[in-house]
Amino acid sequence: AMKINQDVVLRGKKVTLVPYTAAHVPRYHEWMQSEELQRLTASEPLSLEQEYEMQRSWRDDADKCTFIVLDSERWPGQAEESSMVGDVNLFLTNAEDPTVGEIEIMIADPSCRGRGFGKEATLLMMAYGVRKLGITKFEAKIGQENEASICMFKKLHFKEVAVNSIFQEVTLRLDVSDQERQWLLEQTNHVEEKSYAELKQPAGVLDT
User: Fold this and answer.
1) What does pLDDT average to over the chain?
2) How far, in Å, CA of 104 to CA of 102, rounded?
3) What is the CATH number of the domain that holds 134?
4) Fewer CB in a 10 Å sphere around the end CB: N or C, the chain?
5) Is 203 part of a structural domain of the chain?
6) Who's near 147: CB < 8 A, 6+ residues apart?
7) Secondary structure letter of residue 111 according to DSSP
8) Are the beta carbons of 117 and 123 closer than 8 angstroms?
9) Would you say residue 148 lies in a domain?
């Protein structure tokens, strides 16, 4: 199952990726009440209870890998819930080809958009997918009107391969050649991988 990342923290310059836990659900649920985010992520609003179920499936399903995106300046130091800026997901959607990963990024906090958070979070997730999950091909499906996101993926070397006018979405793709792999690892060579359990509980601090 996709519990491979349940103790993984990927710490970049702007963002830090942590596993999606039940503690993140209330804030996440609050975000998803936004009609704009529902439109951008093509998702239906869920009840809080459904959101908790969703979080459990994210943790337990073998074909999904997700991280919550935190602002590196705020965490560790501030509470995770107040440091959350979005999430990044990888779906292994192709049963015939486990090396294909569909990637999704959401920077939910409007004040954090346009600051390179999405780009770094996506790079961190891609490098993790390549190193740990054996991904060699990435796909991203993005609403046609979401120009900022399409533009960002193109900067990350994705190429537009299809437009679905019914769903009004664009599919972008990146095949990870040796050259692309090298580039990806160079882009993320500053990233530190840490243990979530250790960062959450600084040495000597017991859960009370």
Assistant:
1) 90
2) 7
3) 3.40.630.30
4) C
5) no
6) none
7) G
8) no
9) yes
pTM value is: 0.90
Of all helices (H) and strands (E), which one includes residue 19? strand 15-19
- Which residue do the tokens 């958009």 mark? 113
Which tens digit of pLDDT belongs to each residue from 99-149?
A: 999 999 999 988 898 999 999 999 999 999 999 999 999 999 999 988 999
- Written as six digits, the tokens of 6 are 């349940």
The domain total for the chain is 1
Q: At which residue do the structure tokens 């015939």 appear?
A: 96
121: containing domain: 8-191
204 inside domain: no
For residue 82, which amino acid is it? Answer: S
Distances (CA, A) of 134 to 53, 80, 129, 175: 28, 29, 6, 13
Query: Per the structure block, which two tokens stand in for 145?
Result: 């009107």
d(CA 185, CA 116): 18
Instruction: Indicate whether 198 belongs to any domain.
Output: no
Task: Decide: residue 149, CB within 10 A, 0-12 exposed, 13-18 middle, 19+ buried.
Answer: buried
For the beta sheet containing 8-11, the strands, ordered from the edge strand earlier in sequence to the opposite edge, are: 159-164, 169-175, 137-143, 100-107, 84-91, 64-71, 15-19, 8-11, 192-195
Cα(65)–Cα(77) distance, integer angstroms = 26
